[in-house]
């Protein structure tokens, strides 16, 4: 059984009411419940966590090292600013799939830069909440591939 952490950063606790035209109407609780349910159908145990604080996200990444096989991460705006989060992912050496609800490349220029991409195995963006399920799939495929080696 794979253990996967679905980690969400700042302002994503407001999903459902936050700019629904950009981020959709699903709440974070709904998205997390879908991830847990989907994980169950794939034999994966999904743990979910959200924080608005950079240090708490870093602590969660460090803690994932003992017990989780990978991370699905939507770092919110820290994506574009946080070298510390990038370093945390590189430090724990866990495969990380970067997820964004919106297509960050079609938005303001400051959103085109992602520090997370530099250490993630890949990025999924622009597919709304379905991106999280796609992220779990991508991570499981990656873990399977590593097991086969
Ligand atoms: C986001 C995109 C970021 O640019 C933004 O700061 C967010 C959400 C997304 O899921 O589309 O908070 O990560």
Automatic annotation (TrEMBL):
Gene: aroQ
Assembly, per entry: Homododecamer.
Species classification: Bacteria, Pseudomonadati, Pseudomonadota, Alphaproteobacteria, Rhodobacterales
Pathway: Metabolic intermediate biosynthesis; chorismate biosynthesis; chorismate from D-erythrose 4-phosphate and phosphoenolpyruvate: step 3/7
Name by which UniProt lists this protein: 3-dehydroquinate dehydratase
EC number: 4.2.1.10
Catalysed reactions, semicolon-separated: 3-dehydroquinate = 3-dehydroshikimate + H2O
GO biological process: amino acid biosynthetic process; aromatic amino acid family biosynthetic process; chorismate biosynthetic process; quinate catabolic process
Role: Catalyzes a trans-dehydration via an enolate intermediate.
Active site: 23, 100
Residue runs in coiled coils: none
CDD domains: DHQase_II
């Amino acid at each position: 059984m794979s253990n996967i952490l679905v980690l969400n950063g700042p302002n994503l606790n407001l999903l459902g009411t936050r700019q629904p035209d950009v981020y959709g109407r699903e709440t974070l609780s709904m998205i997390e419940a879908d991830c847990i349910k989907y994980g169950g159908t794939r034999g994966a145990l999904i743990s979910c966590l959200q924080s608005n604080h950079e240090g708490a996200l870093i602590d969660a990444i460090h803690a994932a090292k003992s017990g989780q096989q990978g991370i699905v991460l939507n770092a919110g705006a820290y994506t574009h600013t946080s070298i510390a989060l990038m370093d945390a992912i590189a430090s724990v050496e866990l495969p990380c799939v970067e997820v964004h609800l919106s297509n960050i490349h079609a938005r303001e220029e400051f959103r085109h830069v992602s520090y997370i991409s530099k250490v993630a195995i890949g990025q999924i963006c622009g597919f709304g909440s379905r991106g999280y399920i796609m992220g779990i799939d991508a991570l499981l495929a990656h873990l399977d591939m590593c097991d086969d080696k």
